[in-house]
Amino acid sequence: MPTVHVEKDRCKGCELCTRVCPEQALGMSEKINAKGYFYPVAKEADKCTGCRRCVLMCPDEAIQVEVKGKRTAPPEALTGAPLHYCPGCTHGVIHSLIGDAIDHLGIREKTVGIAPVGCSVLAYNYFNVDMQQASHGRALALATGIKRGRPDLAVFTYQGDGDLASIGMAETVHAANRGEKVTAIFVNNAIYGMTGGQMAPTTLPGQITSTTRAGRDVKHAGEPIRMVELLNELQTPAYLTRVSVHDPKHILAARKAIRKAFKYQMDGVCFSLVEILSTCPTGWGQTPHDACGWVVDKMTPYFPLGDKKVPEAA
Predict the structure, then answer these.
(1) If you count DSSP H runs as helices and E runs as strands, how many of each does the chain have, helices first?
(2) pLDDT in tens, 245-282
């Protein structure tokens, strides 16, 4: 029978795992952990089928499932350090997917990650690879220098929407136009998460933020920027795709896309950008579960999922 293992003191009580369990085998404890959060427990363990949806959905690497003596484990490309993100924030899910891609391709010893300012600023604590810190918006400029100096390395950037699509817009467009053989991971949560929940370039029309209390007025602030569509107008070959991590099915699709993006880089094919729709429960003022629903109901109609450009060499 499958066994669920919970590292209770890593949990932030977001309840995303219990929400995605198809058999309702998981429930929340009546006790709190060292951080003051309720944590998941296998209340009806005999119902567990070992589907591992809870593992995929957990943003804090707090759950493992053991089936026939084989236990899931976080990627070796992650350090295992506790994540600083808010409860239910899906940055942690995205970290796991990047770590999976690095492990899958066996490139951990030759990978360099770059994180600028924003929620990703502490990424060097979480990835078990060489990491560099860039000034706000300059990650792809730094990535260009590293990749050109060491073409054998796998170089990726981990950037939010305020970073990549606002202050770093020039770096993004020109790196893509030059066809730099790097991988950009673009986390789009439609808000400035770290600095106070202000309007971002990707904030939706009518969306309330700390600087748009009546909602984004497109007549004043313009329409949200669709980055993969914008870059798709360039003639340079590239891999451009948009995915989401709001449920296990889409997390698996995101895993496939990120693996593909790194593979294109290692094969010297093209520039790659994977845009990932992510939640910001704190900035949006929602529960983690409701935030996942908001991605589906509000974000995906404006930011449609799927490949926008695939290189002919593929």
Answers:
(1) 12, 12
(2) 999 999 999 999 999 999 999 999 999 999 999 999 99
Contact, 120 vs 136, CB < 8 A?
A: no
Q: Which of 40, 71, 102 is the last residue of a domain?
A: 71
The conformation of residue 6, written as its DSSP 8-state character, comes to E
Tokens 């810190």 correspond to: 133
- Locate the DSSP E strands across the chain: 3-6, 26-32, 38-42, 63-67, 70-71, 111-115, 130-133, 154-160, 183-188, 238-244, 271-277, 306-309
State the DSSP code for 127. Answer: B
- Model pTM? 0.96
Which has the closest alpha carbon to 108: 135, 133, 75? 75
CATH number at residue 255: 3.40.50.970
Q: Name the nearest CA neighbour of 135 among 151, 154, 121.
A: 121
CATH code for the domain of 31: 3.30.70.20
Domain interval for residue 35: 3-71
- Residue 162 C-alpha from the chain's centroid: 15
Whole-Å CA distances, 31 to 6, 9, 11, 42, 156: 14, 12, 12, 14, 40
